[in-house]
Amino acid sequence: MADFEYDIIVVGAGHAGCEAASAAAHLGSRTLLITMDMNTIGQMSCNPAIGGIAKGQIVREIDALGGQMGIVTDLSAIQFRMLNKSKGAAMWSPRSQSDRKQFIRQWINSLTTTDNLHIWQDEVVQIVIDHQVVAGVVTRLGVTFRAHAVILTNGTFLSGLLHFGRTQIPGGRIAEKASVGITDQLVGLGFVSHRMKTGTPARLDKRSIDFAAMQEQQGDVTEEKFSYLPDVRRELKQMSCFITYTNPTTHDILRRGLPDSPLYNGQIQSIGPRYCPSIETKIVTFADKEQHQLFLEPEGVDSNEYYVNGFSSSMPWQIQLEALRSVRGLEHCVMYRPGYAIEYDYFDPTQLHETLETKLIRNLFFAGQINGTTGYEEAAGQGIVAGINAHQNIIGGKPFVLMRDESYIGVLIDDLTHKGVDEPYRMFTSRAEYRILLRQDNADERLTTRSYELGLADATRYNYYISKQEAKRILLDYLESTSCTNPVYRSLLEQNGYAASSAHGSLREMLCRPAINLRMIIDCTPDLKLVADSFGSRMDEIIDSVEIDVKYSGYIARERMAADKLHRLDAIKIPADFRYGELQSLSTEARQKLTKLQPKTIGDASRIPGVSPNDISVLLVLMGR
After folding, report:
1. Cα(371)–Cα(140) distance, integer angstroms
2. What is the pTM of this model?
3. How far separated are the first and last CA of the chain, in Å rounded?
4. Measured between alpha carbons, how far is 131 from 400 in angstroms, rounded to an integer?
5. Is residue 246 in some structural domain?
6. How many CA atoms lie within 13 A of 338 on its CB side?
7. Which contacts (CB < 8 Å, 24+ apart) does range 133-137 have?
8. Which of the ends of the chain has fewer CB neighbours closer than 10 A, N or C?
């Protein structure tokens, strides 16, 4: 029956699944999104926030590609902050607190109004495979859906097991059942699977918290946001977060609970996220510290629920509550639900191509935590790439691969597919070699044209991008063609610690001075101010972009040269049947890893841990270079 036949089926409606389904449907594929609960589509399982260091760049990249996470976040935002603003522009990272319920509502509205996209509430228990090619799925209700491609985005639900002290409950999230059957089937087909662990803190009743005893943290008073679309705005009431600290008494209570902690009594064997440790891990690893910072974050405008960021725990609920009540401002706190740890299955991501299609089964894709990552943003970035490539496979199009110098999403997927993971993978700016190229302000310049040519970014988004580029060109032309010898500019230099006699060259050269910014120049240049005002709500975005391009032009050019060298290595192909094991001139580790991962290019080989520059030189000689 046609109703049960689709081009693409997406399993799971978390952040990866929502982006994958949305992208595939917008590209024109008849798409089915299968979820166990339509009421939790886009659920923020842990922290009610999007973005942060490096993660914010990923969200802007998703938006530049025509994805939905940035839009959904802006429409549900209750606090926005640009992190690292005191550092260089390559480190600026947007972060937004979201109203958890509004975030879900916005995602549901986005998906249910998307053409070509259908939703089915059920659990997938089996993948249909026909001669090593995916052919569909079978659900718990016994329904068989046929499809040309399937994308698995199961999050923490694959054989999920929740830990509350010594109490263990099967589940993918609290009060939601685990998904069983798929892991066993895939392992039977030859896939390698392991276990990982993550966790979440308790949720507290706002009415029981003494906020006056804490430090208030307000959001930025700006119009900044994630989406490049100017008609997308933050409209919800903006709310504050609050900061408090644990103390020696808190730590003593937690140490008393360590024998019942699943992390320390042998109950949990899998590896948790290094960069988001539980509170019990903190007091053990950093035993010399007398306090740890906690953030009390609101769950929504109309909610009394608060998230205790920094207090993730799998200890017995009694210990959690007692420890929390020893914290300043939480002496009388009431708990809605305790924190817990969750173990779940993931698959070694080196079993994937860079398109996120599996190497063993044609047209089967993995995206999100199933690949060993952690974080909403990392999942969503994989989801949009998987959705695009599933569509491309079906229509016989070119693979859509993002390079390391092109996006943080490209760094993420390249790391996963070439290096694999031995702990939950989280994105950091330090993972990217070309951070100055991969800024949060220029994601549209890097990706929107590619997406428009693909058919995902629509004409409206593309035209907004073109108008921004034209506005930047007007500003840059003025700066380059106008001398700074005018007395008004001499005065500006003197006011900011420079000698008036140093006023020579163009306004662009003047802008390169550290103490001078573009707004200063605009404010004392009436003609330029009229031009800037004509940019309307996008004025700050355009001014910042021009200033960054000018001030960092030398660094940008240098990084571009380094990236071009990498591209030359990526252009050198390695034969598919190349026998590394016979090359004694390669190190033993290189032979083993190259044989296992079978890189397609010299560039791919150079990014594999354990493959040294000397090994690359040997391969270059053998490739005739």
Report:
1. 24
2. 0.94
3. 55
4. 25
5. yes
6. 20
7. 133/361, 133/362, 133/363, 134/361, 134/362, 134/363, 134/364, 136/9, 137/9, 137/11, 137/34
8. N
Cβ burial 477-492 (10 Å sphere, 16+ → b, else e): ebbeebebeeeebbeb
- Domain for residue 562, yes or no? no
For residues 604 and 403, the answer to whether their CB atoms sit within 8 Å is: no
CA distances from 329 to 255, 450, 603 (A): 21, 50, 54
Query: Closest Cα partner for 405 from 616, 614, 603, 573?
Result: 603
CA distances to 90, 202, 285, 324, 337 from 318, in Å: 44, 11, 23, 10, 11
Q: What are the structure tokens assigned to 524, written together?
A: 């004392």
CA–centroid distance for 349 within its chain? 17
The answer to whether 338 and 202 are in contact (CB under 8 A) is yes
How confident is the model at residue 182, as a pLDDT? Answer: 97
Same domain, 536 and 617: no
Contacting residues for 219 by C-beta, under 8 A, at least 6 apart: 79, 80, 81, 97, 238, 239, 240
CATH number at residue 548: 1.10.10.1800
Handedness of CA 120, 46, 93, 302 (dihedral sign): positive
In a domain, 113, yes or no: yes
Domain that holds residue 511: 467-556
491-534: per-residue pLDDT in tens? Answer: 999 999 999 888 889 999 999 999 999 999 999 999 999 999 99
Separation CA 245–CA 282 (nearest Å): 13
Residue 334 structure tokens: 């009431």
